[in-house]
Every structure is written in C-alpha cells, then in structure tokens.
Amino acid sequence: MTDERKKHQRRRRLFPRRGYVLFLIGILVGFLIFAFISMIFGEIGVKSIEFLYTSEKQSWIEEITPRFEQWYFETHGEKIHVKLTVAGTHDSVIQILWGNIKPVAWSPASSIWIPYLNLMWQKLGYEGEIATDSWNRTVLSPVVIAGWKTLIEEYNISSFRDLFELTEVFDFKFGHPDPRDSNGGTMAVALEFSEAARKEPSELHIDDFKDESVLDFVSILESKAVYYGKSTGFFGRWAVENGPSAISFFSVYESVVLDNAFKAKAKWGDSLVAVYPENGTLFTDHPFVILNASWVESWQSAVAEQYLAYLLDEESQLRAQQYGFRPVNPNVSINTTIFNEENGVRANIADVPKLSPLSGEALEAIFTIWIKVKNQGT
C-alpha cells in the first residue's frame, strides 16, 4: 500500500470523528442559544418593583419576599419580582436625592427620616413631598440604653440625664454609633438633646442647638464616649466582644440587646440589659413609604400596597420577632420566649412613652452641630 493511499484511509477515519465532534458542538451551541432566549423572553411579562430598605431587617425581608412573590402569583396568576436593594438609612436618602436609585417603596430604619427627605427634596427645587403622610410602620424596636446589669443596678440608671449626672461621680465609658453614618446614632444623639433641653424631640427648635446649656449637657455626656461605630448592629457586637472594661453604657436598638444577650453572659458572666428611658424614647418603626415620584407608576404603587399588606400579615409579623422586632399588627402577641428579662429586655413596654420624631430642620441641625459636641478623641 502506497503512502498516499494510507493517508487517504486515515482521512476517512478522521472525518467521521470530526463530524461527530462538530455535531456535539452544534448541539451545545444550540442549547446555549435556547437557554439565553428562554431567559430573556421568560422575563417578559414579569412585573418588577424596587424596594430600598435598611440592613437591620434584611434577614426578615429576605425571608418574607419570596413568599410574597409566590402568593402574588397564586392570587393574581401573574409573576411579580421585588428587587431588594439594601442601604444605610442616611445613604438611602442620598441615593434617592441624587437619582442613583429610583425605588417604588422606601423603608428607612425610622420615620424620623421622612421629614428630612422631604426637606432635602424641596431644597433641590422639587415641589410637594416625595414621602407623603400615607406611610405605615412595619415593625418596632425602641432605642435603649444598654449596659451591664451590675453597673445598671449599682448606679440606678433610668435615663440619659442619669448618665449625665453620673459623669460627676464615676468615670464610666460611653458610646453609640456615629450619627453621620447610623440611624441608631442619630436617634441616640436626638434623645440626648431632647433630655438636655427638657423637650420632646418633636419640640426641638433650631435655637435649642445654639443654647449653651444644652450644648454643655451633650458635650459633657459625649466626653465619656470611647467609640463611635458606623453601624448599630456592629456597635453592639463590638461592645460585647470587648466587654465591661471597654464600655460601660451605650445606646443601641433593643433588638441589638436581644442579639447579643446570650453571648454577653457566656463571655463575661454579667448580663447585658436594656434600659428604656423613663422620659420616653424614639422607636425604630421601619416605615414603608410608597414614594410620590415621577418614576413610580400607578400599577407599581398598587403592587407595593399589597406587598406592605403581606409584611403586616400575622404570619409575617410572627416571623419578624425571630429577628428581634416587635410586631405592629395588633392581632399578633409578643413572643415571651424571645422578649423576656432573661434575654435582657422587657416583654411589656406599654408604659414607655413613645416620643414623636424631630422635624427635618432639627435633624439637619444635629448633623451640623455634631462636630462641636462629639468627643474629639474618638
């Protein structure tokens, strides 16, 4: 057999193999094209709304939202997608004002930010309010003074004024998140000014932030601050990790005390407890605000209203308690296996006065005056 004939036979054996490989490649390419087309066209007809909310309730929201989407499909026979976008409260305000995020619904940690958003919205030249009065609370968590049970009982701490007076006799260590970064820090400082001026937060006026006696009160208390964290949840974890020698008292949400109570007792042999200020406190009420903005269509508002109703449903509110939040649905009872003194909190806080939020102007004044009253060494 000549060399040329051998080459020809080898080519005949190779061609079927090459044809088989090309056939497989063709199938694979076809499958990928089909999958891509299915993905693109499969989304056609799926309605979508964007929900901008804060990280404190992320675990709860991420559990509830797929349930809502399934419920919506079963109820209405069409698919809905809720795009979840997480941001810090102050950052969420900035993103809305700059137009970087255009959500249908917005949920800051507290309703104290609603008048502030409206104020800044109007300063940009827009007419009317982007966040109208037709908003609803979703869950609750009061701002508390957290501390170690031994110290709380020894010095009988029941308010921010008690802490102020304690500065004269005891060199304690204080702290809270930075108000420029954290809603928890903003609310803590607002309560300090409220106590200093002997007014409710809603009554604070621009002049109160210029009153030297008020500024002295806050400055003296803040002089005991050893740390300002960027996140309320992170601050609580830092406090428990470092213990009583690092910090004596600090202001956070009740839910943060619940999250850290077991670890605190196990690590330091002293309980972490929540003090509910006797003159009242602000509540993180996690409002659900359907924005009054040009980019929000009427059908999106309607879907958002149903989403809100689902968050307020009894089953959803029961699940919220697993993450340390109190329900706002009056038909849902407090789970006393979670909310109890063993976990450092009280089940019944009906006697704790609920204070009304600050005006947008007062909130803006806090950010302006903060540099003057903060502990410059932290």
List keywords for this structure.
378 residues; alpha/beta; D-Maltodextrin-Binding Protein, domain 2; 2 domains; seven-stranded mixed sheet; 48% helix
Report what the structure shows.
The chain is an alpha/beta fold and 378 residues long. The protein has 2 domains: 47-136 and 287-324, Periplasmic binding protein-like II (D-Maltodextrin-Binding Protein, domain 2, 3-Layer(aba) Sandwich); 141-284 and 346-373, D-Maltodextrin-Binding Protein, domain 2, CATH 3.40.190.10. The chain contains 13 helices and 11 strands. It has helices spanning 3-42, 58-76, 89-98, 113-123, 149-155, 160-166, 183-197, 212-222, 232-242, 254-268, 298-311, 314-321, 360-373; strands at residues 47-53, 80-86, 105-107, 139-148, 174-175, 225-227, 249-253, 272-275, 283-284, 289-290, 326-327. Strands 4, 5, 6, 7, 8, 9 and 11 form a 7-stranded mixed beta sheet that branches. Strands 2-1-3-10 form a 4-stranded mixed beta sheet, with helices on one face. Helix 4 packs across helix 13 and helix 7 packs across helix 8. The longest helix is centred in the first third of the chain and has 40 residues, at 3-42. The protein is globular, with a radius of gyration of 28 Å. The protein starts with a helix and ends in a 5-residue tail after the last helix.
- Beta fraction of the residues? 5-15%
Biggest β-sheet strands, sense, barrel: 7 strands, mixed
- By secondary-structure content and strand pairing, the structural class works out as alpha/beta
Report the mean per-residue pLDDT as an integer. Answer: 90
Give me the count of strands: 11
Order of helices and strands: HEHEHEHEHHEHHEHEHEEEHHEH
Label the overall shape: globular
Q: How many domains, in number, for the residues?
A: 2
User: How many individual helices?
Assistant: 13
* CATH class category label of the largest domain: Alpha Beta
Low-confidence segments, given as residue ranges, are 19-24, 33-43
The name of the CATH architecture of the largest domain is 3-Layer(aba) Sandwich
Distance between the termini: 92 Å
Helix content percent band: 40-55%
Radius of gyration, rounded? 28 Å
In CATH, the homologous superfamily of the largest domain goes by the name Periplasmic binding protein-like II
